[in-house]
Amino acid sequence: MCGGCVQEEYPDRGSTCLETGSFLMNYVSCAQCNKRDFVLIANKSTDDEDGEEIITFDHICTNCHHVIAKHEYTFSVVDDYQEYTMLCMLCGRAEDSVSILPDDPRQIAPLF
């Protein structure tokens, strides 16, 4: 992973978890070839460990194939919620939780 390729290392992305793609607003240029072009996704793998889906891949430079960052995305179901996390030097860090019920119990206002 290369801190010289990104504007900010592991920016806080709130609840925006990317399963695929790249956060190009944070990409400065390749520290190895000094070119700013598209970012490729390579070495993508999907694992399933104890009900948790883990997707990992590398962001690499289109021109010289320098590894810019390693991306990790996880998905799991815990109780009545879908849990998402993302950790990547380029795309940032984020967490999200979504209810699988029609009405999210956390969003219901008390009656009294």
TrEMBL record:
Question: Does the keyword Metal-binding belong to this entry?
Answer: yes
Some GO term, biological process aspect, for this entry: which one? positive regulation of DNA-templated transcription
Record-level Gene Ontology MF annotations: zinc ion binding
Pfam families in alphabetical order: Churchill (PF06573)
**UniProt entry tagged with the keyword DNA repair:** no
Q: Do you know which InterPro entries this protein is assigned to?
A: Churchill_sf, Transcrpt_activator_Churchill
Protein family according to the UniProt entry:
Belongs to the Churchill family.
Q: What is this protein called?
A: Protein Churchill
